[in-house]
Amino acid sequence: MNVEIRHLRCLVAIVDEGGFTDAAIALGLSQAAVSRTLASLERTLGIRLLRRTSRQLAPTPAGLRVIAQARRVLAEVDGLVRTATSGHADLRIGYAWSAVGRHTSAFQRRWSDAHPHTDLHLVRVNTATAGLAEVGCDLAVVRRALDEKRFEQVVVGLERRLCALGADDPLARRRSVRLAELTGRVLLMDRRTGTTTPDLWPSEPRPVIEEVHEVDDWLTLIAGGRAIGITAESTAHQYPRPGIVYRPVRDAEPIAVRLAWWRDDPHPKTQAVVELLSDLYRGD
């Protein structure tokens, strides 16, 4: 037999109400039902929870520990019910390296004003699905297409493709660069989440690829002159760094910014997020 929520509610009610009679009234049960429920819980746990005499009802030492844990469990359950029934909910949006760039602050502020009962949380998860499959995010900002069998996705905007260079790099003095000017250089690439692949260069020669997995490592290597990077414009806005300059890549296609979610389990606010982000990117 498993411990059930009704067992915990009964135990806490007996303690809070000071006895079986008042607990039965509070729970809308008969006194016999309350006694049976407590006995069932004690049999399941294999311990005595309450010490009962003709004059006194008091928790045993083990009962005190169980009661404290029961209160925490019931508080979590009550919070879950409030979230599901009151219209107030959390919205977790995952992203890998950068959220929505220079639109991030405006997105947060406008969301808070328009949807005060839905708390927005931006969560950085450096995986291919930006947290959808790994940590239970409701939506994800991704910059390359996901598996269409599992995920629904829509393009909400486009971003320029930028080259990240050390500030002392000769190309840093240029207003923009071309792909051909980057051949032979060491190019940092995140194969799990990145939008840069050797296919950006239609033919040889191509840059020398070196793999990296975290944005901080990417920035550190570039600032030290060890390598260069090509990234979405949002990275430049989210990660300005002394010693690094970002220059547009003139002959590279822009990057599509997608909003993705589980096909069979969309968050109720999904369409509102799509509309707001699309509106922000249209302002570009």
List keywords for this structure.
284 residues, alpha/beta, Arc Repressor Mutant, subunit A, D-Maltodextrin-Binding Protein, domain 2, 3 domains, five-stranded mixed β-sheet, 8 helices, 36% helix, 23% strand
Explain how this protein is built.
The chain has 284 residues and is of the alpha/beta class. The protein has three domains: 5-86, Arc Repressor Mutant, subunit A (Orthogonal Bundle), CATH 1.10.10.10; 89-158 and 256-282, D-Maltodextrin-Binding Protein, domain 2, CATH 3.40.190.10; 161-253, D-Maltodextrin-Binding Protein, domain 2 (3-Layer(aba) Sandwich). The protein is built from eight helices and twelve strands. The strands form three sheets. A five-stranded mixed beta sheet has the order 4-3-5-12-6. Strand 3, helix 5 and strand 4 form a beta-alpha-beta unit.
Radius of gyration: 28 Å
Q: Specify the CATH class of the largest domain.
A: Alpha Beta
The total strand number stands at: 12
Q: If you average the pLDDT, what whole number results?
A: 90
Distance between termini?
Answer: 60 Å
Biggest pleated-sheet summary: 5 strands, mixed
- Proportion in β-strands: 15-25%
| Helix amount | 25-40%
Low-confidence stretches: none
CATH superfamily name of the largest domain? Periplasmic binding protein-like II
The CATH architecture of the largest domain would be 3-Layer(aba) Sandwich
Q: Helix count?
A: 8
Order of helices and strands: HHHEEHEHEEEEEEHEHEEH
Shape: elongated
The class by helix and strand makeup works out as alpha/beta
